[in-house]
Amino acid sequence: MDFAPDARSVELAAHARVFLDEHVLPAEPLLDAQLAETPGEWNVRPVVRDLQARARAEGLWNLFLPGEHGAGLSNLQYAPVAEVTGWSPRLAPAAFNCAAPDTGNMEVLHDFGTPAQQEQWLAPLLEARIRSAFCMTEPDVASSDATNIETSIRRDGDHYVITGRKWWSTGAMNPDAAVFIVMGKTDPDADRHRQQSMILVPRDAPGVRIVRPLTVFGYDDRDHGGHAEIAFEDVRVPAENIIGGEGDGFAIAQARLGPGRIHHCMRALGMAERALALAAARANERHAFGRALSEQGVIREWAAEGRIRLEALRLLVLKTAWLMDTVGNRRAMTEIQAIKIAVPRAAQSIIDRAIQVFGGAGVSADTPLAELYAAARCLRIADGPDEVHLSSLGRAELRVGAPR
Amino acid sequence: MDFAPDARSVELAAHARVFLDEHVLPAEPLLDAQLAETPGEWNVRPVVRDLQARARAEGLWNLFLPGEHGAGLSNLQYAPVAEVTGWSPRLAPAAFNCAAPDTGNMEVLHDFGTPAQQEQWLAPLLEARIRSAFCMTEPDVASSDATNIETSIRRDGDHYVITGRKWWSTGAMNPDAAVFIVMGKTDPDADRHRQQSMILVPRDAPGVRIVRPLTVFGYDDRDHGGHAEIAFEDVRVPAENIIGGEGDGFAIAQARLGPGRIHHCMRALGMAERALALAAARANERHAFGRALSEQGVIREWAAEGRIRLEALRLLVLKTAWLMDTVGNRRAMTEIQAIKIAVPRAAQSIIDRAIQVFGGAGVSADTPLAELYAAARCLRIADGPDEVHLSSLGRAELRVGAPR
Amino acid sequence: MDFAPDARSVELAAHARVFLDEHVLPAEPLLDAQLAETPGEWNVRPVVRDLQARARAEGLWNLFLPGEHGAGLSNLQYAPVAEVTGWSPRLAPAAFNCAAPDTGNMEVLHDFGTPAQQEQWLAPLLEARIRSAFCMTEPDVASSDATNIETSIRRDGDHYVITGRKWWSTGAMNPDAAVFIVMGKTDPDADRHRQQSMILVPRDAPGVRIVRPLTVFGYDDRDHGGHAEIAFEDVRVPAENIIGGEGDGFAIAQARLGPGRIHHCMRALGMAERALALAAARANERHAFGRALSEQGVIREWAAEGRIRLEALRLLVLKTAWLMDTVGNRRAMTEIQAIKIAVPRAAQSIIDRAIQVFGGAGVSADTPLAELYAAARCLRIADGPDEVHLSSLGRAELRVGAPR
Amino acid sequence: MDFAPDARSVELAAHARVFLDEHVLPAEPLLDAQLAETPGEWNVRPVVRDLQARARAEGLWNLFLPGEHGAGLSNLQYAPVAEVTGWSPRLAPAAFNCAAPDTGNMEVLHDFGTPAQQEQWLAPLLEARIRSAFCMTEPDVASSDATNIETSIRRDGDHYVITGRKWWSTGAMNPDAAVFIVMGKTDPDADRHRQQSMILVPRDAPGVRIVRPLTVFGYDDRDHGGHAEIAFEDVRVPAENIIGGEGDGFAIAQARLGPGRIHHCMRALGMAERALALAAARANERHAFGRALSEQGVIREWAAEGRIRLEALRLLVLKTAWLMDTVGNRRAMTEIQAIKIAVPRAAQSIIDRAIQVFGGAGVSADTPLAELYAAARCLRIADGPDEVHLSSLGRAELRVGAPR
């Protein structure tokens, strides 16, 4: 249970921090400007391309990916770096080619893809030449219950035919998102967790229709490809596009979600830290009723409460990373659920209070707070709502004979 | 302490409810469509004009305004009607000509305006021929402390010269907002609450510069004229544009804020009721893990908690209205502060849980919830942040000899 | 919906307040002294007898009981008086002969008793010559679900034979508690809510065995007869001791619980008011780090939050009383559940913060706070735990077609 | 940052756990019986003596004390053992001679005592032949602000004369508490943190008067010597009884409080774990409305929330211990404050919910929950109320240039 970041991790995090301060944070206004110039477009903006080139040149690239294809960091090593990227979720993860959903998709291809699949899709993703999307959630059912999934993947000779509707396919509005990993049912009569399969669907396959972009609290998240609703209308792909085999979909999803969830938590810590830092600066500079806000007891209490939550939860994230590294994602499931619930909630609360410190500026675009809030709020829904995880954790806790 | 709505109030609220169900709620998609068609414009959309014409014909018009110029309702009579309008804050208040900030501005003109000011500005506002804005908050200071205000209103012969910068001037992006009520200092050396004055500034006065629109979370609130930052650069207006006299600004602001705050609370109750109703419908129709969400204990608890809070707070709003009607706004200050703190917070919490019930749909534009959330959230900042009111209430409560 | 106390209520509450200030609060140390002198006894102490004599002489007697046997107050009229008694729950309710469980038992006898039952038990209870207990909760089952009750009431010729075990029979340690109202099953095979009956069991009936006193946190509540566990071992009573008829037990319990619950809430408001008043006085008199506690922002915020909750919840209690008076207890069930949940919780929270203001004195016997806390905490369990009521309220709220 | 307990710690904690299960938990009813037999006495009961003998024989003795006088464990090594003792705070800490306030007093003597002081007082304390008390808090002032202390320690020739009043002197009702460490002012005009000194006062010194025992939520805590109010009336002790030197009192108090606070937190984790375990068992065995409580969503959510908080906070406690071991108590002050605030609060909340799961049994003496609750609640007051620590933490967090 040694959570101390090793030398490589310390060095990378420090490097990332410098990169953040020198290149990423100053580039945020530039991103806004480029977005304002081309309001109808969803592709990656030049400022991101420039940051990517620089980051790659500096070795800050694919840090999320264990193994020889990526930087080879353990989860524990990656944690401090990922937290740094959370300070600027619109730019930093993309700059380092560590942005969801591409990270999870690369992991799937890395862990379960055939050599041909890897050559076709993983290689360009690792170089950020293309983007990808993950098509799991459906508009018509509660998708946290995988047995609800209605999209069908039907075998037809050498092909599979995909029919269904997905939404919240993050990044899919970006025309560079060349491939979609689609979850559907190959056998609705199989065991509960063997009904589902995953399949690779090229964006340009006939029958793929981008229905519309979705918004999140008014934001279209255009800077990272938005969130799409997609109709799959009798889309036909070669049988070799299946990932793993028929019935492996649920297991692959679980494997993908573990790292995905902890990455979100690592970044959420950074989001909350930035909110705390912004609030602290503001509280020192604003005065009301004869004192700086930082001298008001209530503001101090908020700052203390935020600090306490972050310190405790960061340790839980690190422990979870360490468990994933040492006993595997599956046996770290309980901890993953715990941080999946607790960290976004803490971030949401801390950002909300930072907004309150800023007043009107806090809800506007003059600070990153409102957009950070929206992002943190969504984490309580994405990858399964809090309530599903709480119920699962609680059931385990109440189980007769649960270890004490 | 009789809070029962009288016959007129019951009838008006029922009428408003029918109007809401038959005309307003069905018009929401139309508003979205019209907004989408003309993305660069800030003026009132045709759907609003149509609703206004119909509402006015039906007598649902200027219901907020006591006295002969308006419907002549008491605060208590108005409360149930205003709550109905909260179900559709983007359309219903405007449809009934009961939308902030015009309501508050009309009250100011009604209560403190000269006959000439009333003829020039109140008359067209009462007919919705023009819109208005209220310019109080400033970007550079904590404006909840009125002594911080930096805008100057300097007498120069028969004129006043206004210099300063305001923001969160709601509605001011709308080119039809023909007049701004501006708060500034005429005498920085006067007593704390006699430094400020209010003055009428026509939109087209030289030196008035609309700097930019502000966003709230990701929303630009284009449907009701947005929120503007405005520079007043040596703006010269006739001396008779002053409202009341020099030094009356703080008192007028206080007089304006009482009704403004309770109206916000009345509408916030309606916002929360709509969220509860939407969540209930969704919880009955969605199934996960073998049961409707409405059968899950946690969801039931949320619904119960929301209902309890709303029932208790509605009564406090009604009591406050009754006090304003019977002992005056000034002596109802404590209660106004209490609801100003408690109601938006309750609405925020109830809407947040409704979002959680909906999952992804809740944060998107497919439900009104995310936008309602943003509106409720802002109420904890607008007209003074919660913390200022809590501190003031707490000081009174702890005062030696406070009545028990 | 007129909640204003009428003249009689105003006068009685003012009278009760004077009585509280002049006689009850000063008698609290005397009660402690008398309890300390006779540690092994459970009967009513002389100080209570003296207060009763005085209160009865002044007309502050049996105020809880509607109809000709009592003061004839409506629930709405009684509310302000009952709140006053909550300031000193150990003495004031008993002084006015308005203490649970006697109040509920008198109501049962009043509403459902035969003339003979009333003569034998109601008459002396109305004069405080005897005390009584209510035997409903059982140690071995979750008694909030009435179908769980295991005590049997078996007809045997002209008698009933009662067998079972009860606990939390408040007041039953007092040897003056001459009669117990016992809930048991006469027909386990009847409909869910027709299985139970209520029967009068004299304390001295053979087979009644007081097993032991229970404590609440560290308190034995000796001042009002404690809380007993009681074994009923083949206790034989005349058949005419049944209240109403066989199968009426559940309905009678429901009828009894409505007033019982609202009385608890009325008193809980008074408990919380006293805590707020004590905290305010302390906050003005204690200094730390250069300022009175009352000047600390966090303390002010607590005071404000407490005040807001109490003001809103008092109105909900009054509305509930008014509903009970006008449409009947049954149709006020939803509101009764709401206040049953919300008021004790608010009182608990307010008292907890008052304790924190006092520090060590707050948890000790030097202030009434710790004992008030224990009492408020128990109200979240007594008469059904919060969770049962929340679930019931939530189910109603989520019901398809629930009125909005 | 390696928090993993080493082999010795693992072994000791496992040993302690076995000892707890086999000897301590079964002895709790025996303690109750012995207390009931001798209600007027405050001394250590035979059951504790027996457990002490056995624990000492097994090597579970003085584990809290670093260095050669004790077990020589680091804080990190001690943490898992201390947590085990928290399962039975009335018996286990005393059994292992690891109970407050003796632990802190032994640390003071160990770290700051002269050889003579150590021989006279530390030696018998290490063997549990005597007990001790710590006299810091005063009834008349807010003692969290050390400048408020009113007790005077006046030099008079070869003696010091102590005059003042202390309370919450835990353990001091026990006649075996042979020595008191008293904090007072030797120089009220010195610098803020050099005014105070500490001095050893034998219980039998003339002028020491035990005024009365204090209660905590009705408990007198007789099992570990209660809490005394003590008057020091011109108590004269030899000058060599001073600890350190004049003016060292504040620094010694700070040194003492660091370990004291973390020990409380370690035990509080164990208290909360026991509450969770009891609640889980109860939730599985109780049924209401057709299901075990453990199948109710709300109960599951509680269990999950409790687990998450404990897992995160345990890590923060371990990190704090590790910091104390590696960089010293002084530089771990921020973390000590953080856990001092967060852990008791979490324990209080978890125990409160466990009480709710148990209903009436939860507030009674049939479960340890109510007494655990009272103990956890007091931890939010003892050693400085939460608010003082929150304010201090918040100030540090908001400091300009605080590290991020």
From TrEMBL, chains A, B, C, D:
Cofactor (UniProt): FAD
Biological process terms in GO annotation: fatty acid beta-oxidation using acyl-CoA dehydrogenase
Record has Oxidoreductase as a keyword: yes
InterPro entries, A to Z: Acyl-CoA_dehydrogenase, Acyl-CoA_Oxase/DH_mid-dom, Acyl-CoA_Oxase/DH_mid-dom_sf, AcylCo_DH-like_C, AcylCo_DH/oxidase_C, AcylCoA_DH/ox_N, AcylCoA_DH/ox_N_sf, AcylCoA_DH/oxidase_NM_dom_sf
Acyl-CoA dehydrogenase/oxidase N-terminal domain span: 11-127
Pfam families per UniProt: Acyl-CoA_dh_1, Acyl-CoA_dh_M, Acyl-CoA_dh_N
Stretches assigned to the Acyl-CoA oxidase/dehydrogenase middle domain: 133-235
Transmembrane segments: none
Annotated GO CC locations: cytoplasm
Keyword field: FAD, Flavoprotein, Oxidoreductase
Record domain Acyl-CoA dehydrogenase/oxidase C-terminal: where: 247-396
Gene Ontology molecular-function annotations: acyl-CoA dehydrogenase activity; flavin adenine dinucleotide binding
Quaternary structure and partners: Homodimer.
PANTHER family registered for this protein in UniProt: ACYL-COA DEHYDROGENASE FAMILY MEMBER 11, MEDIUM-CHAIN SPECIFIC ACYL-COA DEHYDROGENASE, MITOCHONDRIAL-RELATED
Family (UniProt): Belongs to the acyl-CoA dehydrogenase family.
Descriptive protein name: Acyl-CoA dehydrogenase
Organism for this UniProt entry: Microbacterium caowuchunii
